[in-house]
Design a protein that fits this description.
This is Long-chain fatty acid transport protein. This protein is mainly β. It is built from five helices and 25 strands. Helix content is 7%, strand content 43%.
């Protein structure tokens, strides 16, 4: 017994070291489910424990999981994903001695379609459960909670959000402030030589966007669930401390340095790490022979700050992981057919860096002197403008034979943005997917071993919007499509 436990814990540690290669986004940036069987049923698990990865949804479910372990790996492709910029950006007419010139009236995204690269990601998982006695269990579950990745290599989306390197900026005759051009050659050329009353608007190109442009967020969770059966043993409660590790990198965001309270901590600072913890509570009840119910709540995961990106995220680099609530039921309609339903609520609106609006006039953030708290990195700094998300999941499990189980499911989540005026920042996180269609199968090869497969398709979804405070009249569309295949091995001692 001790040898089995040591081997299982060793496998958990190896898996923990391998997992931070994930980058997924289905329900916002949370995975649509954890565990291959659950993924095959659109993520239902709150009242239908099927393997040790149930901890990620409802730790109380471990009470009815046998002594053993589960190993899984998913190949995930969030592609295509990106942004389409329309040609309706604002322009202004400039009268000169050489004629009238039409110039952009402010920052804009060069019209066209921007597809993110890096299309395939490997996502491993592991879970182990040990029965302490007839009424209690303890285990460990290691999994990638979620993440987000974008990488625009062919062209920088934000290339028009700064003036030319060393271009002079000063007052116009009408009192407004903007970049200086020389029109004597018959076309506008940026003025870079010193002019009285002007300043260098982009010293040596420090605000010029580079490629690749994008972000990479990865999250590793380790939960240690303890469960206790109550009364007649048909009900159980569970609690799990949750330990989390995040890795983050941003590149190509140089124009936003001028809008930050900490310009050197916005972009191109390499990988930064964040660590934290929270708690996960759950209840599971086999109410009748046919009906099971479940509920769980995972607190906010309180994380240390991303110090290297203290000028990008609100409150000096704060990026806590949102709380999550689940309700579920599972009904055995026939001896070999089970129907399960989950409701999930993800509290994205409680994490400032995710929820804070970016529909704000950032002009004051680009001026010299103390900057307002809503500037990037400030105590109430702008964020992605996300709202909390509701997810509805429906799954079916059909035992075709004593050894073969077939599964399927569908889920739907509400929109991720609070309004259609906050599209631009989400070029970095186009979490537009709404529907998830899933299939899978499990085959019991021996008395102790089962192998499973899951397939998930998330149809392409778009979000049409604007960002008036950053790109004036220009509109555009975020889009994403996803596919995932998962393989799992379950072993019971």
């Amino acid at each position: 017994m001790k040898t089995k436990i040591r081997h299982s814990l060793a496998l958990a540690l190896v898996t923990a070291g391998a997992i931070p290669v994930t980058a997924s986004a289905t329900n916002g940036y949370f995975s649509h489910g954890w565990g291959v069987r659950s993924k095959a049923m659109a993520g239902v698990a709150t009242a239908l424990p099927q393997d040790t990865l149930v901890t990620a949804t409802n730790p109380a479910g471990m009470a009815v999981i046998g002594h053993g372990f589960d190993v899984g790996v998913s190949l995930f492709s969030p592609s295509p994903r990106g942004y389409k910029a329309n040609e309706d950006y604002a322009t202004q007419q400039i009268q000169t001695g050489q004629g009238t010139f039409s110039l952009p009236a402010g920052g804009f995204v060069t019209p066209g379609e921007y597809d993110s690269s890096d299309d395939w990601f490997l996502v491993p998982s592991f879970g182990y459960n040990h029965h302490l006695d007839e009424r209690s269990t303890i285990g460990i579950t290691v999994f990638g909670n979620g993440g987000m990745n974008t990488r625009y290599k062919s062209r920088a989306p934000f290339e028009n959000f700064s003036v030319y390197p060393n271009q002079r900026v000063g007052a116009y005759p009408d009192g407004s402030v903007g970049p200086y051009f020389d029109f004597s050659s018959g076309r506008p050329r940026p003025v870079t030589e010193p002019v009285a009353g002007t300043v260098n608007g982009n010293p040596n190109g420090i605000y010029t966007a580079t490629t690749p442009t994008g972000i990479n967020l990865e999250q590793l969770f380790i939960e240690i669930p303890y469960t206790l059966k109550l009364g007649d043993g048909n009900r159980a409660v569970g609690i799990a401390p949750v330990f989390a590790i995040q890795r983050f990198e941003a590149t190509g965001l140089e124009p936003f340095r001028q809008m930050s309270v900490n310009p050197d901590k916005v972009t191109n600072n390499g990988d930064d790490w964040s660590y934290g913890w929270g708690l996960h509570f759950g209840w599971y009840g086999q109410v009748t022979d046919q009906l099971a119910l479940g509920a769980s709540y995972r607190t906010t995961i309180w994380m240390s700050k991303f110090d290297e990106y203290a000028g990008l995220f609100a409150d000096g680099g704060s990026f806590d992981i949102p709380a999550m609530f689940n309700l579920g039921l599972a009904y055995k309609a026939r001896p070999n057919l089970t129907i399960a339903f989950d409701y999930q609520h993800i509290f994205y609106d409680e994490t400032d860096s995710i929820a804070n609006s970016n529909d704000a006039d950032l002009t004051a953030c680009q001026q010299a002197g103390p900057k307002p708290s809503y500037c990037l990195g400030g105590n109430s700094g702008v964020g992605f403008g996300w709202e909390s998300m509701d997810v509805l999941k429906l799954g079916l499990s059909y035992e075709a034979t004593d050894r073969l189980t077939l599964m399927g499911g569908v889920s739907y989540n509400t929109d991720f943005l609070k309004s259609d005026r906050q599209g631009l920042f989400n070029v970095l996180a186009p979490a537009t997917v709404r529907w998830h269609w899933t299939l899978g199968a499990a085959y019991k090869a021996t008395k102790s071993d089962e192998f499973s497969i899951s397939l998930a398709y998330m149809p392409k979804a778009t979000f049409d919007g604007t960002s008036p405070t950053l790109t004036q009249t220009q509109s555009g569309s975020l889009y994403m499509e996803q596919f995932e295949v998962g393989l799992g091995w379950s072993h019971r001692f």
